[in-house]
Amino acid sequence: MEKKRRLLLKATGIKLGTPVYIYDSKIIKEKCRELKKNLPGVNLYYACKANTNPEIIKLIYNEGFGIETVSPGEIKIAHKAGIPISKITFTCGSIDEKELVSVVKQGIRVHLDSLHQVEIFGQNFPGKEISVRLNLNIGAGYHSHVITEGPDSKFGIDISQIKQLKRLAEKYKLRITGLHQHIGSNILSVPIFLRAIDALFKTALLFPDLKHLDFGGGFGIPYKPKERRLDIKILGIKIKKTILNFIQKYGRKIKFSFEPGRYLVAEAGYLLVKVTDIKKNPTKTFVGVDSGLNHLIRPAMYGSYHEILNTSNAGSKKEKVTIAGNICESGDVFAKNRMIAKPKIGDILAIKNVGAYGYVMSSEYNSRPKPEEFMIIQNKIIKI
Ligand code: LLP
Fold this sequence. Notes:
Pfam families: Orn_Arg_deC_N, Orn_DAP_Arg_deC. Pathway: Amino-acid biosynthesis; L-lysine biosynthesis via DAP pathway; L-lysine from DL-2,6-diaminopimelate: step 1/1. The chain is an alpha/beta fold. The chain folds into two domains: 2-19 and 268-383, Lyase, Ornithine Decarboxylase, Chain A, domain 1; 25-265, TIM Barrel (Alpha-Beta Barrel), CATH 3.20.20. It has eleven helices and 18 strands. Strands 1, 11, 12, 13, 14, 15, 16, 17 and 18 form a nine-stranded mixed sheet that branches. An eight-stranded parallel β-barrel has the order 2-3-4-5-6-8-9-10, surrounded by five helices. Strand 9, helix 9 and strand 10 (255-258) form a beta-alpha-beta unit. Helix 6 (115-124) packs parallel to helix 7 (162-171) and helix 8 (190-204) packs parallel to helix 9. The mean pLDDT is 95. Ligand LLP binds next to helix 10 and helix 11.
């Protein structure tokens, strides 16, 4: 299987040229179906910030997901991909009145992020229903940049300000019918999710008019070879139990949702790059490639690990190398001191698990163009 994949990626890299992003639609479908199956009765929204390619958004929507957006640009892309307004949500941070009003006027459900936003909403739409994002102090995630709760996080209305929130809602006759929480990203632990959901349920008891609760995203994937997968099956079983418990306590049925991004697309994506230079220094071998942090910023920005496969070398002889990009920055390194099948000039390397937060975070830094994106659909490779 791995050999077949390696050869397919090599042929693709040669045929299409490098650098290039390739996504396997089969993997995205499998991930969608896995979540649907294990989280029955929970509404699922794809956090499209992970990958906004319209073909990917369409594919995930067709698997029964709504789309979570964070900017007018993302809403526009979702529109173009044919997603109906009723299936789009918007989570806003640091937005101004004009943006907020325009999103609400489109009929999109918005999760308000601050007391100031509640005030603006109330002034423009008194008497309406609102959903608010809370910060319940359960931050989690693999890097401080992706922890979205706790005292250092810019997101959500702090748990200590619930009284003020309620007062503001009363002032404008707003009914708080939704609560939203997103604790962080790439979380691999079932207990952390359960702890966050418990905290949200506890807080929800203080709000009598709720119609929906959103648990956010954050489902992680194993980037490192020996990392344990998040057990979605167990998570699903445990969540079902806590939800039933909560409904009993709350006394009324309400809707629940998750908004995963990474989990659906990360493992479907490869960035194919070509070896352009090999430099043997006294203590290190640098392997230069025709891509860099402008195309995949995760290693430089978060110290993220991405497996790298030499698709051109089937031999088992491995060498310890540092794989560096073609951008004029010392931090432009995809992997440090990594053992991979001995690379030579012209080899095609596949950087794995880049379907999420890969292309979307790319830039034309150093005036090097962005790569193209292709998708494997039933053994055909299509430009998307
Ligand atoms: N919902 C909200 C409100 C979010 O802020 C995010 C991600 C998600 C859902 C989806 O989270 P996911 O399921 O993908 O973990 N660039 C970083 C990740 C930033 C995540 C931002 N918010 C990375 O490359 O790891």
